[in-house]
Amino acid sequence: MFPHNKKTFSPLPGSARRFAPLPLVLMTASALMLSACGQQEAAPTMPPLPVTVLSLQAQNVPLTLEVTAQTEGAKEAEVRARVGGILEQQFYREGEPVKAGQRLFQIDPEPYQITLSETKARAEQTTRDLERMKKLITVNGVSRKEYDDAVSNHDLAQAALRQAQLNLSWTTVTAPVSGVSGRAVKSVGNLITVGSDSLLTAIYQNNPMWVRFSLSESEIAKLPGGRLTPKTITGVELILPDGSVYPQKGKLNFLASSIDTVLGTRQLRAEFPNIEDALLPGQFVRVRLSAGERQNIYLVPQTAVLQSVQGDMLMLADKDDKVAPRPVQLGEWFGKDWIILSGLNPGDRVIVDNILKLRPGAPVAPHAPQAAPSAQAGR
Q1: Which of 102, 125, 212, 350 maximizes the CB count within 10 A of its CB?
Q2: Given this model, what pLDDT does residue 371 score?
Q3: Which domain range does residue 128 map to?
């Protein structure tokens, strides 16, 4: 048997050069970390963000409400046939102004002329009979009953004559009021019947123009005292579909005495002059109601307000020129601004631009509107 030879392995001189001692590694890593920290401390800091601020003061502004409304003619008169027959003529052009009493349609008058002739002849006969009876009754030539029957027959004949005259006159259909004519419902040659099928056209009176609208209970609660009375509304303006304000002022001419139980609103109506026919029935417009003043409120641009599920907020520049969020209570719009009901104090500086770049506590460089510092020079 061969004896086991025990070999002892020792590090070669090359291995000693390949691995550095542990203390040297730790010293090198520490030096690198200190060097990196030194580089971070030496990095330049971001300059404060230039922002535009408004220094606010409480003020009084008119209390207004804007609601959707619809125009309607002050009077819409239906033109209906009172007698039946064939429609022979149409005398007006649809959509043009007409005057009260102006001829609009002609229904065939011949049947009514014949009836008038018959009733006229019967009335003349009863008149002659009555004259004879008057002479005979004085000499007791006829009984009292015969005389009374002659009087009754005369009266009935005269009533029938008057009705025949009316029916003949009604074959010429005239405008009941002045206004703008509507579309003709029936055409020449149609058979006109009295009743539900008697409508021929309509006439619209557009001066003045009425505007119908309603206010919800929440909108009424914003008025002084939370009540709506004729004295509450001090002014009525009309905003046209293109956004312009109608030059003529209006006035309320109807205020419902109860709340609509289905919609929960109160109906109102305003009246506006419409001399030049600038308004047409059926237009959708907006009504602006003035109801006194709101006192000690603040106005801020709409772009300055942050709205979220947590609430409404403004970004302010505090005394150290740092961003300070401030919860506020919004009112309604006043022109292009929000009305702030609470949350602000006199002299607060509200930031109105670069809102999305702001962070609470971040430094800013505030400046007044159109007085911005030369930020490009410091970049």
Answers
A1: 350
A2: 53
A3: 109-170
